[in-house]
Amino acid sequence: MQQTNLKGKNVIIGICAGIAIYKVCDLVRSLIKAEANVTCVMTEDATKFVTPLTFQSLTKNKVFVDMFDTSYFEIEHVSLAQKADIYVIVPATANTISKLANGMADNLVVSTAIATTAKVVVCPAMNHNMYHHKAVVKNLETLKSYGYEIVDAQRGLLACGVVGDGCLADNETILKTIENQLK
Ligand SMILES: Cc1cc2nc3c(=O)[nH]c(=O)nc-3n(C[C@H](O)[C@H](O)[C@H](O)COP(=O)(O)O)c2cc1C
């Protein structure tokens, strides 16, 4: 693998309930191969698509889902936020993008975003019409105004069976963005 600046970096991945979640497994593997220390945080709904066990097995780190799990030693949204060299939310659903734009903190994925001073990278993925809805467009603009880096979705064959915008950016683009943001 090509030399990267990811070695030893604490990359926190916030994972949401989008169908493109299966691509995140490969993204995590690429980060691990580049010797980043990867920790995953998932929304409750994301765990209906892929279990935390998958990401735990890939990263060899605990996966955090429940903000109120008292078996955690630390207050996770704060400790993860402090630990992060970069925080990458992928796939970012319309729902989570809305929460982020409004400063909501009702789960670990969004509360980590507002508790961190690290760069936040948001990778949206959704149906074409959702991606072009004024609310989503406006929320993504709001996130840009907060200094978040948005990795634009791409045109391609969507899970709903039609060609359109809203496909998760390819992993190479996301990795390059992470590397650039860590410079
Ligand atoms: C099969 C299926 C696929 C979905 N794919 C997406 C998607 O790609 N993008 C999206 O924004 N929402 C998608 N949704 C809707 C989200 O799962 C739903 O809004 C969820 O509450 C988001 O939760 P989260 O943002 O807390 O992860 C999908 C739902 C289902 C049932």
Description of the molecule:
- The chain is of the alpha/beta class.
- The chain has a single domain (10-182), classed as 3-Layer(aba) Sandwich (Rossmann fold).
- The chain is 40% helix and 20% strand.
- The protein contains 8 helices and 7 strands.
- The chain is globular.
- Flavin mononucleotide (FMN) is lined by residues 16-20, 43, 45-46, 93-96, 125-126, 130.
- Flavin mononucleotide (FMN) binds next to helix 4.
The largest sheet has its strands arranged as: 2-1-3-4-5
The CATH superfamily is identified as Flavin prenyltransferase-like
Give the SSE string.
EHEHHEHHEHHEEEH
Based on secondary structure, the structural category is: alpha/beta
Low-confidence stretches: none
CATH overall fold name = Rossmann fold
The major sheet is characterized as:
5 strands, parallel
How large is the count of helical segments? 8
| Shape verdict | globular
Mean pLDDT: 94
From the structure above, extract its key features:
183 residues, binds flavin mononucleotide, five-stranded parallel β-sheet, single chain, globular, Rossmann fold, 8 helices, two-stranded antiparallel sheet, alpha/beta, 7 strands
